[in-house]
Amino acid sequence: MGIPKPVVEELLAENEHHECPDAPEICVRLVALADLPTRFGAYQVAAFRNRSDHKEHAAFVHGNVFDGERVPVRLHSECLTGDAIGSLRCDCRDQLTESLEMIGKMDRGVVLYLRQEGRGIGFANKIRAYQLQDTGYDTVQANELLGFKPDERDYGVAAHMLNSLHIRSIRILTNNPSKIADLTRHGVKIVGRIPMPVLLNEHNRSYLEVKQRKLGHLLGLEQTDDLVDYADDAAH
Fold this sequence. Notes:
The protein is α/β, with parallel strands linked by helices and 236 residues long. It has a domain at 5-116 and 153-198: GTP cyclohydrolase II (Rossmann fold), CATH 3.40.50.10990. It has ten helices and seven strands. The radius of gyration is 18 Å and the shape is globular.
């Protein structure tokens, strides 16, 4: 069972005229919520819209998270090349499917899907960064050469989405301490961390090593050399 229909109606009514005059850039409004059966289990999908930049974000809700404490939550930033096409340059698709599978086996939880392509620099700039990486620069160096910080993402929108669902505290599925710090800065009560599996392949090893070495992600790569072989998937 997900969020009950009467509660959904209350949430939608509550959000109908919601405004954040002091922080329009992170202000999102819950505009729709519907059932979504998936291969990972029974979910509901909630659509959020930001009236400032017109970006639309999603929350995939498993079980009744309304007014919940210690709710497992995964924040996932959009990655077109990974999520949709199965790029092996990153681990985004693996992280998305792993989080949906993990939460689908729990009593409840949420996966937030945030429109922050390329660590917040946008799709075209991400591909420009790929071009630079193809010549030998790592992901951090490529972003900096394009005039960006190594990670431009902000999780204020995610905090607002959790607040809109009346989630009181969370256990976050992440290996990234920066997410924890940023969510905490935005007022989210985090009571625990659930580590995410690390799936190495020959194409994303350098990407993950830079995440660990330069961005502080808790990946434990020195403890594993196991590579995922996707050749069988490609053959089919």
